[in-house]
Amino acid sequence: MLPTLDSILDVLTACQEGAAGSGAGGCEQSSENLAMDAGESRAGARAEDGAGPITGVRALPGASAGVGTGEADAVGGGARGGGQGAYLWSRTTLFRALQDIGFTFSKGPNHYDVAREKPSLSRQREDFIDTLRQYRASGKVTYYTDETWANKNMSVYRSWNDGNLRSRLEQPSGKGGSIIIDHVGSRETGLLQGAGLSFVGKKSTGDYDKKMNGPTWLKWLEIDVFPKISDCVLVIDRAPYHLTLTDDARPATTKMKKAEFAEWLVRHDAVPPSCLSQDCRKLKTMADMEAEADKHRPAPRYQVQDLARRFNVKNLISPVDRPELNPIEIVWKTVKMALKRANVEFTMAALKSLVDNEFAKITANVWCRYEDHAINMEEWYCHVEPMREEVEAAFEKAVEEAERLEEDEVNSEPFSGLDVDDMAMSDDE
């Protein structure tokens, strides 16, 4: 029987009780039982594998010195050294035990991990999920939009071949030209028919965000999207061309000249119109004007919001670095994999035709699976957030306790230097 997390906790509890009460007897017995389980598991594994006897057992940190390896005493070694147990497991047993309690051998969390999020980003995600759920509860249809790209020479990385170059598909070198793709979809419609946008990228940069711009995107929404989704919700991400500010919402910048600063302040009712005169501007320094501008900084207002209001569409901005909350991100992965497999002509015309064919396959049924995944991620974040707050509170409490103990230790440490009389005697000598 493999040792489980419960059995480990039982051993640790027994060690603590044994150390606090009548010595290490309870710990020794529990540790011996656990080690016997581990030894039986090792023996069974060796017997199944046809291997010989165990020739070495690695001890975990905390095992006392002088414990032999490969001996019966080591396999069933009890607690030594003040109630500390020596858990001597084989590599295979430890591997299986870690799997039993839910551990995996992986890279671990990345910089998007919730525990490492900035508080502002965490609040951003919480507000997004709460607002989205309110829209769903009110019966509003939610549409999602995003952009991606497709290269002319994109293809699969592996194919059936006999090791000869002639058996492989002749793929042109380089990525070739690219097509910028934009679309919108929902649970009710899948990818919205007739609302797709695709055009050939003109710039040499490989970043598709640099090939799309605000005017092109807004024109696409105005002509092909908003008229079809009136009285609905559109989720957009935080790409720079999505969040182009209106003229009234643009803040003052240090690049402005003094006359431009004065005009901005008058336009935002920060100073009276008389300050536009040259005499009035001479009385104010740039530092004074910047301070006034900071006090009257306008609230952000985006061009897409004004455009959406004309069609009675609500805009919802997704949080930073959370693509898993947008089902269209899974659509892009599905479409791109299909394009890699079907792209054998390596021409822009063939690629555009393939893109249209793949878009037609994303029906409402397919979309529902992707959106259900996004909803499951919303549920996961809602469950993780209270745990994160609890962990942060416990961590802050532990840090405060450690700082207090360190301060007490410094204050209680006796002074080891010479006193005043000793110093005076040293001077006389």
How many β-strand runs? 8
Share of residues in strands: 5-15%
Mean pLDDT: 74
Rg over C-alpha atoms, rounded to the nearest angstrom: 34 Å
The CATH C-level class name of the domain at 131-159 and 167-250 and 298-374: Alpha Beta
Tell me the structural class: alpha/beta
Kindly report how far apart the N and C termini lie: 76 Å
Weakly predicted, low-confidence segments: 1-5, 22-84, 423-427
**CATH-defined topology of the domain at 131-159 and 167-250 and 298-374:** Nucleotidyltransferase, domain 5
What sequence of helices (H) and strands (E) makes up the elements? Answer: HHEHEHHEEEEHHEHHHHEHHHH
- The CATH architecture designation of the domain at 131-159 and 167-250 and 298-374 is 2-Layer Sandwich
- Count of DSSP-assigned helices: 15
Relative helix content: 40-55%
Major sheet details:
6 strands, mixed
Shape: extended
CATH homology-level superfamily of the domain at 131-159 and 167-250 and 298-374: Ribonuclease H-like superfamily/Ribonuclease H
